[in-house]
Amino acid sequence: MTTIKTKQRPIGAKAVLDRFGHPHIVSKTGGELNVVTGASEPGFNPLDLLFSSLAACLVLSARIAASRLDLIHRFSGAKADVTGEKSPEEPFRIARFIIEFTVDGDLDDNEKVQIVRLAEEICTVSNSLKSVPEFALTLA
Question: Pfam families of this UniProt entry (predicted)?
Fold first, then answer.
């Protein structure tokens, strides 16, 4: 019996904000990103990052789904356009995610639906957003 060992990628991020300026984010692997706050400022704001995380996870999961369904040889890619509706009252939150999913390749509609459904089941971000995760908040 063959045992497959997968290397776990460090996950997490730290945000730093000075008295003036924008948040600066550094991932556990050294990726860096500046967050914007102005309505017309180009870049990512916190909600864009949430939508981006969901979109990226879904398309990565679509590729995994195509492989699990033995359709990877005809799968040429996927796109997820994610936005949402913000609640009008406090506590402010995204009340509804709106996802437009496209699956490309030599696949029929049924196969594309199978890929999308399985991708949603696989996606850690969508699974987390559908649950009520515990927050372990401490003051350093």
Answer: OsmC (PF02566)
Give whole-number Cα distances, 3 to 6, 7, 68, in Å. Answer: 10, 13, 18
For 6, 41, 43, 88, the CA distances from 92, given in Å and listed in that order, are 38, 22, 22, 7
Whole-angstrom distance between the N-terminal and C-terminal Cα of the chain? 46
Q: 79: which 2 tokens?
A: 């796109």
Mean pLDDT of 51-75: 98
Q: Which one, of 48, 65, 46, lies nearest residue 123 by Cα?
A: 65
Instruction: Read off the pLDDT of residues 85-109 as tens digits, 9 standing for 90 and up.
Output: 999 999 999 999 999 999 999 999 9
pTM to 2 decimal places: 0.90
Domains, the chain, ordered by start: 9-44 (no CATH), 45-130 (3.30.300.20)
